[in-house]
Design brief:
It contains 6 helices and no strands. The protein is an all-alpha fold and 107 residues long. InterPro entries: Cro/C1-type_HTH (IPR001387), Lambda_DNA-bd_dom_sf (IPR010982). This is Cro/Cl family transcriptional regulator.
């Protein structure tokens, strides 16, 4: 028996994080039954399917296929930008966010 591919392990993990089974994800995306289970033994998806799945799970294609451990490159970019702010800029951003949350009545 072959070891499950990193791609398939990540599909299972992301599905589980959403509280869904692989079969539920297949159904929601309009895939045939067991279409995603076929990737469990080092088979890779087509480019189109990879994009559909990354959009569905809101992760990067590189994360899905195991070339990156970064779930979403946009989040990494924001983290990098925040890390490059001075302490005063971070405090100002915090103040702006706090005012915004209060104005929306979400506090």
């Amino acid at each position: 028996m072959e070891q499950e591919s990193k791609f398939y392990l990540r599909l299972k993990s992301l599905s589980s994080d959403l509280g869904k089974s692989i079969n539920q994800v297949e159904k929601e995306l309009g895939y045939s039954r067991n279409a995603l289970h076929n990737y469990n033994e080092n088979h890779m998806p087509s480019a189109l399917r990879l994009i559909e799945l990354s959009d569905y799970f809101e992760v990067s294609p590189n994360y899905l296929i195991g070339k990156s451990d970064v779930l979403n490159s946009n989040k990494l970019c924001l983290n990098d930008m925040f890390d490059n702010l001075s302490l005063n800029e971070k405090m100002e951003l915090f103040s702006i966010c706090t005012r915004w949350v209060i104005s929306k009545g979400e506090a």
